[in-house]
What does this fold into?
Amino acid sequence: MTDEIVLYETEERIARITLNRPETLNAIHPDTPRKLREAVERANADDSVHVIILQGAGDGFCSGYDLKIFAETSGANSVIQEMPWDPMIDYKLMMGYTQDFMSIFRSYKPVIAKVHKYAVAGGSDIALCADLVVMEDTAKIGYPPARVWGCPTTAMWVYRLGPEKAKRMLLTGDLISGTEAKDMGLVVDAVPSEKLEERVMELAKRIGSVPKNQLMMQKLMINQAFDNMGLASTQMTATIFDGITRHSPEGMWFKHRAEEAGFHQAVHERDSGQNLG
It folds into this structure.
């Protein structure tokens, strides 16, 4: 099954990368980041490809890390250590995942994320690494683990929204609709579900008509501004903090509650608005 976690296909100047765990709303499997990076590298190596569409199979773009694997299963795992924990073991793993996601951002070929239904938690990390995000107007995006058990390691919220709006999202963990995300400036467009593919293809064909060298230069120039703003050091801090959130008292409560009652119940309690910590 891991060979099919991410699908890859091309048509004319467009490569299409599909997250392919529809039975879990494309939740992130331990192999997903690497498979995603390999697909991006494949598109970059294909001289016929000018632009990439990134999408999810089934009923959502991506629901975040698979909490059935990482939270609900009893005991330690790759993201939860027994105490005392070693922050650098955690950092090595999660920075690896972050750099895999950032292959989308670093891709020489522009990437359009096509978001339907949900781009939540780690799924928002993936979507916001794309150059352009087009959402269904009723789709939801956000980072609920900002409440407990997460810090967005790519840090793309602040670079896309600026400090105040990023704080509005990450100090609440709220989900917002595609329409709200467009109004906030987080995504380039939000359209009815029946228009999503049409709008994405309109952008992909327009971008795809530009020579590859021009696309590469424009993207490198814009990305360099992010690097000059300290993107690498911000991501280092975010990734360290992400590990801390999972090993804090509240983070360990979430893990134990997921083991006890299932991750759906733990998430419901975390996101319900009740006082935590």
Summary: The longest helix spans residues 87-106. The mean pLDDT is 97. Residues 72 and 261 are 8 Å apart (CA to CA). The longest strand covers residues 6-11.
